Amino acid sequence: MTAREIPTVEHLTLRTVSTRAKLVAIAERLFAERGIDNIALSDINKAAGQRNKSAAQYHFGSKDGLLQAILDKHAPGIVARRNAILDELEARAKPTMRDVVGALLYPIAEKIADPDGGKAFIRIHAQLVATHLMSIHNLCTSSLQLRQVDRLTRALSAAIGDLPEVIAQQRLMLAAILLFHGLADHSRMQDASGDTNPVVHNTLFIQNLEDCLVALLTADVSHAAIETLSAIHTRSSAMS
Asked: Which residues form the HTH tetR-type domain (predicted)?
């Protein structure tokens, strides 16, 4: 195995696993504190005390490879929790929007209490949410992959109901932005002031965020928005 090859499962040793876990933990902290764009792999190597100046590149290939490792570290627990909620909802006749929003919100919000990089994951994901959304809507390409979100997307789309498709897509985009940026900023304020101030009380904030997400996804479409959408369709038809 050369220095340019990323270690595969077959090549992983106890030492390799330990080194990778340390690099991921350091990267989580630095990406969350200083921003993804402000951190290079060399910064992570240095902070992790690696004598090999190319350690992060050796283990993950690139910054995107390291970011993917961070996402994959947290994805299994989130997916398992979400699927358990969706299993329960699918056993009902017709879940409400609030039911489905719970499947969106709570598996992520519970990461705030995860001492193994949970808050950092939320703050990192908030930085990536626009990239993920643009990739989903084919506005850009990204090597980063989200794990098992199709089932949740279908449930949310079904709960939204009869909204015009473009409006529904924008609402789902706004919900993802509000979810991750809201939780990320909340976690920072909570770290700064503790959980004693009612404004940053964790349970109250998450319940209020749930209310906001439900309102966002169920609000009536304004007459002005309908007119704008109609004008877009008319112009698109004229150009085709």
From this structure: 25-70
Q: Which residues contact 129 (CB under 8 A, 6 or more apart)?
A: 176, 177, 180, 181
- Which tens digit of pLDDT belongs to each residue from 18-48? 899 999 999 999 999 999 999 999 999 999 9
DSSP state, 114? Answer: -
**Alpha-carbon gap, residue 37 to 194, rounded angstroms:** 28
Check if the beta carbon of residue 190 is closer than 8 Å to that of residue 202. Answer: yes
Same domain, 134 and 166: yes
C-alpha separations of 174 from 2, 50, 81, 129, 221 in Å: 44, 40, 23, 10, 14
pLDDT digits (tens, 9 = 90+) for 172-211: 999 999 999 999 999 999 999 876 788 999 999 999 999 9
Asked if 229 and 128 sit in the same domain, the reply is: yes
pTM equals 0.88
Among candidate residues 61, 86, 105, the one where a domain is terminated: 61
Q: Are residues 126 and 228 in the same domain?
A: yes
pLDDT at 3 over 60: no
